Protein backbone atom coordinates (compact mmCIF):
# COMPACT_ATOMS: atom_id res chain seq x y z
CA UNK A 1 0.00 0.00 0.00
CA UNK A 2 1.42 3.41 -0.94
CA UNK A 3 1.38 6.42 1.35
CA UNK A 4 -1.41 7.99 -0.70
CA UNK A 5 -3.49 4.82 -0.47
CA UNK A 6 -2.90 4.58 3.27
CA UNK A 7 -3.94 8.19 3.79
CA UNK A 8 -7.02 7.69 1.63
CA UNK A 9 -7.98 4.62 3.64
CA UNK A 10 -7.49 6.48 6.92
CA UNK A 11 -9.71 9.28 5.65
CA UNK A 12 -12.35 6.85 4.48
CA UNK A 13 -12.28 4.91 7.74
CA UNK A 14 -12.21 7.93 10.02
CA UNK A 15 -14.94 9.80 8.25
CA UNK A 16 -15.44 13.54 7.71
CA UNK A 17 -15.22 16.21 10.38
CA UNK A 18 -17.04 19.49 10.70
CA UNK A 19 -13.79 21.24 11.62
CA UNK A 20 -10.33 21.12 10.16
CA UNK A 21 -9.43 17.86 11.86
CA UNK A 22 -10.48 14.23 11.74
CA UNK A 23 -12.35 12.80 14.77
CA UNK A 24 -9.88 11.20 17.15
CA UNK A 25 -11.83 8.01 17.96
CA UNK A 26 -12.46 6.82 14.39
CA UNK A 27 -8.91 7.79 13.41
CA UNK A 28 -7.44 5.63 16.18
CA UNK A 29 -9.60 2.73 14.99
CA UNK A 30 -8.35 3.29 11.43
CA UNK A 31 -4.71 3.32 12.54
CA UNK A 32 -5.30 0.02 14.34
CA UNK A 33 -6.95 -1.52 11.26
CA UNK A 34 -4.07 -0.44 9.04
CA UNK A 35 -1.58 -1.82 11.59
CA UNK A 36 0.16 1.56 11.83
CA UNK A 37 -0.09 1.04 15.59
CA UNK A 38 -0.79 -1.97 17.76
CA UNK A 39 -2.82 -0.58 20.63
CA UNK A 40 -4.88 2.47 21.54
CA UNK A 41 -2.20 3.48 24.01
CA UNK A 42 0.41 3.43 21.25
CA UNK A 43 -1.95 5.44 19.03
CA UNK A 44 -2.29 8.08 21.74
CA UNK A 45 1.50 8.20 22.07
CA UNK A 46 1.77 8.71 18.33
CA UNK A 47 -0.81 11.51 18.25
CA UNK A 48 0.81 13.37 21.13
CA UNK A 49 4.34 12.99 19.79
CA UNK A 50 3.38 14.18 16.30
CA UNK A 51 1.63 17.31 17.58
CA UNK A 52 -1.41 16.46 15.45
CA UNK A 53 -4.04 16.85 18.20
CA UNK A 54 -6.22 19.92 17.72
CA UNK A 55 -7.63 21.79 20.68
CA UNK A 56 -10.22 22.21 22.04
CA UNK A 57 -12.26 19.68 20.03
CA UNK A 58 -9.62 16.91 20.38
CA UNK A 59 -9.70 16.22 16.65
CA UNK A 60 -6.59 15.29 14.67
CA UNK A 61 -4.85 17.29 11.96
CA UNK A 62 -4.33 14.51 9.44
CA UNK A 63 -1.75 16.36 7.39
CA UNK A 64 0.44 16.93 10.45
CA UNK A 65 0.07 13.29 11.47
CA UNK A 66 0.90 11.91 8.04
CA UNK A 67 3.83 14.26 7.52
CA UNK A 68 5.18 13.01 10.85
CA UNK A 69 4.67 9.37 9.89
CA UNK A 70 5.72 9.77 6.27
CA UNK A 71 7.74 12.98 5.76
CA UNK A 72 7.34 12.90 1.96
CA UNK A 73 3.52 12.95 2.14
CA UNK A 74 3.45 16.69 2.98
CA UNK A 75 6.44 17.61 0.85
CA UNK A 76 5.52 17.60 -2.83
CA UNK A 77 9.09 17.99 -4.03
CA UNK A 78 10.01 14.60 -2.56
CA UNK A 79 8.96 11.48 -4.38
CA UNK A 80 7.78 8.30 -2.75
CA UNK A 81 10.22 5.49 -3.25
CA UNK A 82 9.36 1.85 -3.19
CA UNK A 83 12.39 -0.40 -2.95
CA UNK A 84 11.99 -4.14 -2.81
CA UNK A 85 8.30 -3.76 -1.95
CA UNK A 86 9.00 -1.47 1.03
CA UNK A 87 7.79 2.07 1.20
CA UNK A 88 10.50 4.59 2.04
CA UNK A 89 9.93 8.35 2.08
CA UNK A 90 12.19 10.82 0.33
CA UNK A 91 15.58 10.55 -1.35
CA UNK A 92 17.44 10.56 1.97
CA UNK A 93 20.92 12.02 2.29
CA UNK A 94 24.57 11.13 2.74
CA UNK A 95 25.91 11.26 6.30
CA UNK A 96 29.65 10.67 6.19
CA UNK A 97 30.21 10.16 9.91
CA UNK A 98 28.45 7.05 11.23
CA UNK A 99 28.30 8.53 14.73
CA UNK A 100 25.92 11.20 13.39
CA UNK A 101 23.41 8.64 12.11
CA UNK A 102 21.04 8.48 15.08
CA UNK A 103 17.39 7.68 14.41
CA UNK A 104 14.40 9.68 15.61
CA UNK A 105 11.34 8.13 17.19
CA UNK A 106 9.09 9.14 14.32
CA UNK A 107 11.49 7.49 11.85
CA UNK A 108 11.63 4.38 14.01
CA UNK A 109 7.86 4.20 14.51
CA UNK A 110 6.60 5.58 11.22
CA UNK A 111 8.89 3.57 8.96
CA UNK A 112 10.37 0.60 10.82
CA UNK A 113 7.60 -0.42 13.23
CA UNK A 114 4.77 0.23 10.80
CA UNK A 115 6.58 -1.73 8.06
CA UNK A 116 7.11 -4.69 10.40
CA UNK A 117 3.38 -4.81 11.10
CA UNK A 118 2.51 -4.38 7.45
CA UNK A 119 4.94 -6.73 5.72
CA UNK A 120 5.88 -9.55 8.13
CA UNK A 121 2.87 -11.72 7.31
CA UNK A 122 2.21 -10.24 3.88
CA UNK A 123 5.72 -11.09 2.65
CA UNK A 124 6.05 -14.32 4.64
CA UNK A 125 9.12 -13.36 6.62
CA UNK A 126 11.04 -16.22 8.26
CA UNK A 127 13.79 -16.26 10.85
CA UNK A 128 17.27 -17.73 10.43
CA UNK A 129 15.97 -21.20 11.29
CA UNK A 130 13.15 -21.06 8.76
CA UNK A 131 10.36 -20.41 11.29
CA UNK A 132 7.57 -18.09 10.23
CA UNK A 133 7.70 -14.70 11.88
CA UNK A 134 4.95 -12.52 13.28
CA UNK A 135 5.28 -8.79 13.90
CA UNK A 136 5.77 -9.60 17.58
CA UNK A 137 8.74 -11.91 16.97
CA UNK A 138 10.74 -9.88 14.44
CA UNK A 139 14.18 -9.06 15.84
CA UNK A 140 17.14 -7.34 14.23
CA UNK A 141 18.62 -10.63 13.08
CA UNK A 142 15.48 -10.91 10.91
CA UNK A 143 14.88 -7.23 10.19
CA UNK A 144 18.27 -6.65 8.57
CA UNK A 145 17.91 -9.26 5.77
CA UNK A 146 14.15 -8.81 5.34
CA UNK A 147 13.89 -5.03 5.50
CA UNK A 148 17.01 -2.94 6.08
CA UNK A 149 19.20 -4.44 3.35
CA UNK A 150 16.44 -4.67 0.70
CA UNK A 151 15.42 -1.08 1.45
CA UNK A 152 19.00 0.18 1.11
CA UNK A 153 20.05 -2.09 -1.76
CA UNK A 154 20.05 0.56 -4.47
CA UNK A 155 22.21 3.01 -2.53
CA UNK A 156 24.24 0.59 -0.40
CA UNK A 157 23.92 3.01 2.52
CA UNK A 158 22.86 2.92 6.15
CA UNK A 159 19.15 2.91 6.93
CA UNK A 160 19.31 6.31 8.63
CA UNK A 161 20.75 7.85 5.46
CA UNK A 162 17.67 6.56 3.68
CA UNK A 163 15.14 8.33 5.92
CA UNK A 164 17.05 11.40 7.18
CA UNK A 165 17.53 14.71 5.41
CA UNK A 166 20.69 15.79 7.26
CA UNK A 167 23.12 14.50 9.92
CA UNK A 168 21.39 13.42 13.13
CA UNK A 169 23.81 13.50 16.11
CA UNK A 170 22.70 11.26 18.97
CA UNK A 171 21.01 12.42 22.14
CA UNK A 172 21.28 8.86 23.47
CA UNK A 173 23.36 5.82 22.63
CA UNK A 174 21.36 2.56 22.82
CA UNK A 175 23.01 -0.66 23.97
CA UNK A 176 20.98 -3.81 23.34
CA UNK A 177 20.91 -7.38 22.06
CA UNK A 178 19.85 -7.95 18.47
CA UNK A 179 17.56 -10.79 19.56
CA UNK A 180 15.19 -8.43 21.39
CA UNK A 181 11.84 -8.10 19.50
CA UNK A 182 11.96 -4.81 17.62
CA UNK A 183 8.48 -3.77 18.75
CA UNK A 184 9.50 -4.25 22.39
CA UNK A 185 12.60 -2.19 21.67
CA UNK A 186 10.46 0.60 20.22
CA UNK A 187 8.24 0.56 23.31
CA UNK A 188 11.27 1.05 25.53
CA UNK A 189 12.49 4.05 23.56
CA UNK A 190 9.02 5.61 23.60
CA UNK A 191 8.71 5.22 27.36
CA UNK A 192 12.23 6.52 27.93
CA UNK A 193 11.50 9.59 25.85
CA UNK A 194 8.27 10.21 27.75
CA UNK A 195 9.82 9.72 31.20
CA UNK A 196 12.59 12.18 30.44
CA UNK A 197 10.17 14.56 28.71
CA UNK A 198 12.17 14.65 25.51
CA UNK A 199 10.73 16.33 22.48
CA UNK A 200 9.73 14.19 19.51
CA UNK A 201 12.98 15.25 17.86
CA UNK A 202 15.14 13.29 20.35
CA UNK A 203 17.50 10.92 18.54
CA UNK A 204 18.83 7.50 19.51
CA UNK A 205 21.95 5.88 18.06
CA UNK A 206 21.18 2.25 17.20
CA UNK A 207 23.91 0.29 15.44
CA UNK A 208 21.65 -1.64 13.04
CA UNK A 209 20.25 1.57 11.57
CA UNK A 210 23.39 3.72 11.87
CA UNK A 211 26.01 1.37 10.46
CA UNK A 212 26.08 0.56 6.76
CA UNK A 213 25.03 -3.09 6.65
CA UNK A 214 26.61 -3.36 3.19
CA UNK A 215 30.04 -2.23 4.43
CA UNK A 216 30.41 -2.89 8.15
CA UNK A 217 34.18 -2.72 7.84
CA UNK A 218 33.88 0.99 7.22
CA UNK A 219 32.17 1.62 10.57
CA UNK A 220 33.72 -1.09 12.78
CA UNK A 221 37.48 -1.40 13.25
CA UNK A 222 39.83 -3.46 15.39
CA UNK A 223 40.25 -0.89 18.16
CA UNK A 224 36.94 -0.62 20.09
CA UNK A 225 37.80 2.96 21.04
CA UNK A 226 37.78 4.00 17.37
CA UNK A 227 34.57 2.29 16.25
CA UNK A 228 31.41 4.14 15.30
CA UNK A 229 29.92 2.83 18.56
CA UNK A 230 32.51 4.59 20.70
CA UNK A 231 32.41 7.79 18.68
CA UNK A 232 28.62 7.94 18.98
CA UNK A 233 28.87 7.47 22.74
CA UNK A 234 31.14 10.51 22.95
CA UNK A 235 28.46 12.67 21.32
CA UNK A 236 25.52 11.40 23.38
CA UNK A 237 24.28 12.66 26.74
CA UNK A 238 24.06 9.11 28.06
CA UNK A 239 23.55 5.42 27.42
CA UNK A 240 20.18 3.66 27.32
CA UNK A 241 20.45 -0.08 27.95
CA UNK A 242 17.45 -1.98 26.57
CA UNK A 243 17.24 -5.20 28.55
CA UNK A 244 15.70 -8.28 26.92
CA UNK A 245 13.56 -10.85 28.76
CA UNK A 246 16.45 -13.23 29.40
CA UNK A 247 19.06 -10.55 30.11
CA UNK A 248 21.07 -12.04 27.25
CA UNK A 249 22.49 -8.61 26.44
CA UNK A 250 24.50 -8.85 29.66
CA UNK A 251 26.21 -11.94 28.28
CA UNK A 252 27.24 -10.15 25.06
CA UNK A 253 30.68 -8.60 25.12
CA UNK A 254 29.77 -5.51 23.10
CA UNK A 255 26.91 -4.67 25.47
CA UNK A 256 29.12 -5.12 28.52
CA UNK A 257 31.84 -3.00 26.95
CA UNK A 258 29.38 -0.20 26.15
CA UNK A 259 28.01 -0.20 29.71
CA UNK A 260 31.59 -0.20 30.99
CA UNK A 261 32.40 2.88 28.92
CA UNK A 262 29.32 4.72 30.19
CA UNK A 263 30.05 3.94 33.83
CA UNK A 264 33.85 4.02 33.98
CA UNK A 265 35.60 5.60 31.00
CA UNK A 266 33.16 8.34 30.04
CA UNK A 267 31.70 9.77 33.22
CA UNK A 268 31.00 13.19 31.68
CA UNK A 269 29.60 14.46 28.40
CA UNK A 270 31.54 16.77 26.13
CA UNK A 271 29.79 19.70 27.85
CA UNK A 272 30.89 18.52 31.30
CA UNK A 273 27.54 17.27 32.62
CA UNK A 274 27.30 13.77 34.18
CA UNK A 275 27.06 10.97 31.62
CA UNK A 276 23.74 9.23 32.25
CA UNK A 277 22.94 5.52 32.30
CA UNK A 278 19.31 4.35 32.07
CA UNK A 279 17.98 0.78 31.81
CA UNK A 280 14.59 -0.04 30.24
CA UNK A 281 12.72 -3.25 29.57
CA UNK A 282 9.19 -4.48 28.85
CA UNK A 283 7.60 -5.83 32.00
CA UNK A 284 6.36 -9.41 31.91
CA UNK A 285 3.08 -8.41 33.54
CA UNK A 286 2.38 -6.01 30.68
CA UNK A 287 3.01 -8.59 27.97
CA UNK A 288 6.21 -8.97 26.04
CA UNK A 289 6.99 -9.22 22.37
CA UNK A 290 4.74 -6.43 21.24
CA UNK A 291 1.56 -7.86 22.67
CA UNK A 292 0.13 -4.40 23.19
CA UNK A 293 -0.76 -2.24 26.12
CA UNK A 294 2.61 -0.56 26.56
CA UNK A 295 4.44 -1.87 29.59
CA UNK A 296 7.97 -0.51 29.18
CA UNK A 297 9.59 0.27 32.54
CA UNK A 298 12.84 2.04 33.30
CA UNK A 299 15.42 2.47 36.01
CA UNK A 300 16.91 5.92 35.49
CA UNK A 301 20.09 7.65 36.49
CA UNK A 302 18.72 10.17 38.98
CA UNK A 303 15.35 11.86 38.76
CA UNK A 304 13.48 12.40 35.49
CA UNK A 305 10.59 14.61 34.44
CA UNK A 306 8.10 11.83 35.24
CA UNK A 307 9.15 12.02 38.90
CA UNK A 308 8.04 15.62 39.22
CA UNK A 309 9.60 17.91 41.81
CA UNK A 310 9.31 18.59 45.52
CA UNK A 311 9.20 16.43 48.62
CA UNK A 312 7.59 13.43 46.91
CA UNK A 313 10.08 13.21 44.06
CA UNK A 314 12.03 10.30 45.55
CA UNK A 315 8.84 8.42 46.36
CA UNK A 316 7.56 8.87 42.80
CA UNK A 317 10.84 7.58 41.43
CA UNK A 318 10.60 4.49 43.63
CA UNK A 319 7.00 3.85 42.59
CA UNK A 320 7.87 4.29 38.91
CA UNK A 321 10.78 1.87 39.05
CA UNK A 322 9.12 -0.65 41.36
CA UNK A 323 7.59 -2.67 38.50
CA UNK A 324 10.97 -3.25 36.88
CA UNK A 325 11.47 -7.05 36.86
CA UNK A 326 13.61 -7.71 39.92
CA UNK A 327 14.96 -10.97 38.52
CA UNK A 328 16.46 -9.14 35.53
CA UNK A 329 18.40 -6.78 37.75
CA UNK A 330 19.62 -9.75 39.78
CA UNK A 331 20.89 -11.41 36.59
CA UNK A 332 23.09 -8.40 36.00
CA UNK A 333 25.03 -9.43 39.10
CA UNK A 334 26.36 -12.34 37.03
CA UNK A 335 28.02 -10.09 34.45
CA UNK A 336 31.48 -11.48 33.71
CA UNK A 337 33.49 -9.88 30.93
CA UNK A 338 35.82 -12.91 30.68
CA UNK A 339 33.00 -15.28 29.69
CA UNK A 340 30.98 -12.87 27.54
CA UNK A 341 30.17 -13.89 23.97
CA UNK A 342 30.55 -12.16 20.63
CA UNK A 343 29.30 -12.93 17.13
CA UNK A 344 32.85 -12.39 15.88
CA UNK A 345 35.79 -13.84 17.82
CA UNK A 346 38.00 -10.95 16.76
CA UNK A 347 35.62 -8.55 18.55
CA UNK A 348 35.94 -10.52 21.77
CA UNK A 349 39.73 -10.52 21.55
CA UNK A 350 40.04 -6.82 20.77
CA UNK A 351 37.64 -5.76 23.55
CA UNK A 352 39.33 -7.90 26.21
CA UNK A 353 42.77 -6.69 25.13
CA UNK A 354 41.57 -3.10 25.09
CA UNK A 355 40.24 -3.38 28.65
CA UNK A 356 43.46 -5.05 29.79
CA UNK A 357 45.52 -2.29 28.16
CA UNK A 358 47.35 -4.69 25.83
CA UNK A 359 49.34 -3.24 22.94
CA UNK A 360 48.34 -6.04 20.56
CA UNK A 361 44.55 -5.95 20.29
CA UNK A 362 44.41 -9.04 18.09
CA UNK A 363 46.53 -11.25 20.32
CA UNK A 364 45.45 -13.72 22.95
CA UNK A 365 44.07 -11.69 25.87
CA UNK A 366 45.03 -12.51 29.47
CA UNK A 367 42.74 -15.02 31.14
CA UNK A 368 42.56 -12.81 34.24
CA UNK A 369 43.31 -9.15 34.79
CA UNK A 370 42.68 -6.57 37.50
CA UNK A 371 40.88 -4.39 34.95
CA UNK A 372 38.43 -7.24 34.27
CA UNK A 373 37.71 -7.49 37.98
CA UNK A 374 37.28 -3.74 38.27
CA UNK A 375 34.89 -3.66 35.32
CA UNK A 376 32.81 -6.53 36.70
CA UNK A 377 32.64 -4.91 40.14
CA UNK A 378 31.59 -1.53 38.80
CA UNK A 379 28.82 -3.00 36.68
CA UNK A 380 27.59 -5.26 39.48
CA UNK A 381 27.47 -2.26 41.78
CA UNK A 382 25.50 -0.16 39.33
CA UNK A 383 22.72 -2.74 39.28
CA UNK A 384 22.93 -3.46 43.00
CA UNK A 385 22.10 0.19 43.60
CA UNK A 386 18.99 -0.22 41.46
CA UNK A 387 17.84 -3.28 43.41
CA UNK A 388 18.97 -2.49 46.95
CA UNK A 389 15.61 -1.31 48.30
CA UNK A 390 13.73 -4.26 46.80
CA UNK A 391 16.30 -6.70 48.17
CA UNK A 392 16.02 -5.09 51.60
CA UNK A 393 12.23 -5.37 51.55
CA UNK A 394 12.49 -9.05 50.63
CA UNK A 395 15.03 -9.42 53.45
CA UNK A 396 17.52 -11.16 51.18
CA UNK A 397 21.04 -12.03 52.27
CA UNK A 398 22.89 -8.85 51.28
CA UNK A 399 26.60 -9.65 51.58
CA UNK A 400 27.03 -9.90 47.80
CA UNK A 401 25.13 -6.64 47.35
CA UNK A 402 27.35 -4.98 49.93
CA UNK A 403 30.61 -5.92 48.22
CA UNK A 404 29.29 -4.85 44.82
CA UNK A 405 28.00 -1.46 46.00
CA UNK A 406 31.26 -0.64 47.76
CA UNK A 407 33.19 -1.28 44.53
CA UNK A 408 30.68 0.44 42.24
CA UNK A 409 32.41 3.86 41.97
CA UNK A 410 28.95 5.44 41.87
CA UNK A 411 28.77 9.22 42.05
CA UNK A 412 25.02 9.48 42.71
CA UNK A 413 22.86 7.23 44.91
CA UNK A 414 19.15 7.63 45.66
CA UNK A 415 17.45 5.06 47.91
CA UNK A 416 13.90 5.63 49.14
CA UNK A 417 12.82 2.94 51.59
CA UNK A 418 9.05 2.56 51.50
CA UNK A 419 6.48 -0.20 51.07
CA UNK A 420 7.33 -3.24 53.16
CA UNK A 421 10.47 -1.56 54.48
CA UNK A 422 8.32 0.66 56.68
CA UNK A 423 7.65 -2.37 58.87
CA UNK A 424 10.72 -4.54 58.27
CA UNK A 425 13.82 -2.35 57.81
CA UNK A 426 16.06 -2.65 60.86
CA UNK A 427 19.20 -0.96 62.14
CA UNK A 428 21.43 -3.83 60.99
CA UNK A 429 20.35 -3.31 57.37
CA UNK A 430 21.17 0.40 57.55
CA UNK A 431 24.52 -0.39 59.16
CA UNK A 432 25.37 -2.72 56.26
CA UNK A 433 24.36 -0.02 53.79
CA UNK A 434 26.49 2.57 55.57
CA UNK A 435 29.51 0.27 55.44
CA UNK A 436 28.90 -0.32 51.71
CA UNK A 437 28.66 3.29 50.50
CA UNK A 438 31.23 3.91 47.73
CA UNK A 439 33.76 6.61 48.57
CA UNK A 440 33.22 8.15 45.13
CA UNK A 441 29.74 9.45 46.02
CA UNK A 442 29.05 13.11 45.25
CA UNK A 443 25.29 13.01 45.87
CA UNK A 444 23.49 10.83 48.42
CA UNK A 445 19.77 10.59 49.22
CA UNK A 446 18.53 8.11 51.82
CA UNK A 447 14.84 8.20 52.70
CA UNK A 448 13.86 6.35 55.88
CA UNK A 449 10.68 8.29 56.65
CA UNK A 450 8.12 6.01 58.29
CA UNK A 451 10.57 3.14 58.91
CA UNK A 452 9.31 2.29 62.38
CA UNK A 453 12.04 -0.11 63.52
CA UNK A 454 14.96 2.25 63.05
CA UNK A 455 16.68 3.77 66.08
CA UNK A 456 19.76 5.82 66.91
CA UNK A 457 21.92 2.87 65.88
CA UNK A 458 21.04 3.48 62.22
CA UNK A 459 21.89 7.17 62.46
CA UNK A 460 25.17 6.46 64.26
CA UNK A 461 26.21 3.96 61.56
CA UNK A 462 25.53 6.46 58.80
CA UNK A 463 27.38 9.16 60.70
CA UNK A 464 30.44 6.94 60.92
CA UNK A 465 30.49 6.51 57.13
CA UNK A 466 30.22 10.21 56.22
CA UNK A 467 33.85 11.24 56.88
CA UNK A 468 34.99 8.71 54.28
CA UNK A 469 32.83 10.24 51.54
CA UNK A 470 35.44 12.82 50.61
CA UNK A 471 33.73 13.96 47.41
CA UNK A 472 30.23 14.39 48.86
CA UNK A 473 28.54 17.63 47.78
CA UNK A 474 24.81 16.92 48.26
CA UNK A 475 23.40 15.01 51.24
CA UNK A 476 19.76 14.34 52.10
CA UNK A 477 18.75 12.11 55.01
CA UNK A 478 15.13 11.64 56.05
CA UNK A 479 14.30 10.11 59.41
CA UNK A 480 10.83 11.62 59.74
CA UNK A 481 7.78 10.10 61.42
CA UNK A 482 8.56 6.58 62.45
CA UNK A 483 12.24 6.25 63.15
CA UNK A 484 13.04 6.67 66.85
CA UNK A 485 15.88 9.19 66.73
CA UNK A 486 17.07 10.91 69.91
CA UNK A 487 19.84 13.41 70.63
CA UNK A 488 22.37 10.58 70.34
CA UNK A 489 21.60 9.89 66.68
CA UNK A 490 21.14 13.52 65.68
CA UNK A 491 24.38 14.64 67.34
CA UNK A 492 26.27 11.78 65.71
CA UNK A 493 25.07 12.86 62.26
CA UNK A 494 25.95 16.48 62.96
CA UNK A 495 29.45 15.42 63.95
CA UNK A 496 29.70 13.07 60.95
CA UNK A 497 29.06 15.80 58.37
CA UNK A 498 31.57 18.24 59.89
CA UNK A 499 34.61 16.69 58.11
CA UNK A 500 32.87 17.55 54.84
CA UNK A 501 33.24 21.28 55.55
CA UNK A 502 35.14 21.92 52.30
CA UNK A 503 32.93 19.87 49.95
CA UNK A 504 29.33 19.78 51.19
CA UNK A 505 27.19 22.32 49.32
CA UNK A 506 23.63 21.12 49.95
CA UNK A 507 22.31 19.55 53.15
CA UNK A 508 18.80 18.30 53.91
CA UNK A 509 18.08 16.68 57.29
CA UNK A 510 14.54 15.74 58.25
CA UNK A 511 13.85 14.66 61.83
CA UNK A 512 10.15 15.59 61.82
CA UNK A 513 8.10 13.66 64.35
CA UNK A 514 10.98 12.70 66.67
CA UNK A 515 9.74 14.18 69.98
CA UNK A 516 12.78 13.00 71.96
CA UNK A 517 15.07 15.60 70.37
CA UNK A 518 16.11 18.40 72.72
CA UNK A 519 18.32 21.49 72.86
CA UNK A 520 21.40 19.27 72.64
CA UNK A 521 20.48 18.23 69.11
CA UNK A 522 20.00 21.84 68.04
CA UNK A 523 23.31 22.87 69.57
CA UNK A 524 25.18 20.12 67.75
CA UNK A 525 23.54 20.97 64.42
CA UNK A 526 24.26 24.68 64.91
CA UNK A 527 27.93 24.00 65.64
CA UNK A 528 28.20 21.84 62.52
CA UNK A 529 26.55 24.46 60.30
CA UNK A 530 29.05 27.08 61.42
CA UNK A 531 31.91 24.86 60.24
CA UNK A 532 30.42 23.89 56.84
CA UNK A 533 31.96 26.79 54.93
CA UNK A 534 31.16 25.40 51.46
CA UNK A 535 27.46 25.01 52.28
CA UNK A 536 25.12 26.97 50.01
CA UNK A 537 21.70 25.49 50.81
CA UNK A 538 20.37 23.82 53.95
CA UNK A 539 16.99 22.34 54.89
CA UNK A 540 16.50 21.36 58.52
CA UNK A 541 13.24 20.02 59.92
CA UNK A 542 12.65 19.25 63.57
CA UNK A 543 8.89 19.64 63.31
CA UNK A 544 7.03 18.25 66.28
CA UNK A 545 10.10 18.38 68.53
CA UNK A 546 8.37 19.98 71.49
CA UNK A 547 11.30 19.75 73.90
CA UNK A 548 13.38 22.31 72.00
CA UNK A 549 13.53 25.67 73.80
CA UNK A 550 13.24 29.10 72.21
CA UNK A 551 16.90 29.75 73.02
CA UNK A 552 18.08 26.62 71.19
CA UNK A 553 15.81 27.47 68.29
CA UNK A 554 17.29 30.95 68.03
CA UNK A 555 20.82 29.52 68.13
CA UNK A 556 20.11 27.17 65.21
CA UNK A 557 18.40 29.91 63.22
CA UNK A 558 21.39 32.19 63.70
CA UNK A 559 23.82 29.49 62.56
CA UNK A 560 21.79 28.95 59.37
CA UNK A 561 21.41 32.65 58.53
CA UNK A 562 24.90 33.61 57.43
CA UNK A 563 25.66 35.53 54.25
CA UNK A 564 25.52 33.40 51.09
CA UNK A 565 23.57 30.53 52.68
CA UNK A 566 19.98 29.78 51.72
CA UNK A 567 18.20 28.06 54.58
CA UNK A 568 14.81 26.59 55.42
CA UNK A 569 14.49 25.67 59.08
CA UNK A 570 11.48 24.23 60.90
CA UNK A 571 11.54 23.58 64.67
CA UNK A 572 8.42 22.56 66.53
CA UNK A 573 5.77 24.68 64.82
CA UNK A 574 8.10 27.57 64.03
CA UNK A 575 9.52 28.06 60.56
CA UNK A 576 12.27 30.36 59.34
CA UNK A 577 13.60 31.07 55.85
CA UNK A 578 16.86 32.79 55.04
CA UNK A 579 17.63 33.44 51.38
CA UNK A 580 21.17 34.60 50.95
CA UNK A 581 21.20 37.85 52.89
CA UNK A 582 17.48 38.41 53.49
CA UNK A 583 15.99 37.18 56.75
CA UNK A 584 12.33 36.24 56.93
CA UNK A 585 10.88 36.47 60.41
CA UNK A 586 9.53 33.42 62.20
CA UNK A 587 6.13 32.32 61.02
CA UNK A 588 3.66 30.12 62.82
CA UNK A 589 3.18 26.91 60.83
CA UNK A 590 -0.27 25.48 60.31
CA UNK A 591 -1.13 22.80 62.88
TrEMBL record:
Cited InterPro entries: F-box_LRR-repeat, LRR_dom_sf
Domain of life the protein comes from: Eukaryota
GO cellular component, one term: cytoplasm
Name recorded for this polypeptide: Uncharacterized protein
Native source species: Polarella glacialis (Dinoflagellate)
Lineage: Eukaryota, Sar, Alveolata, Dinophyceae, Suessiales
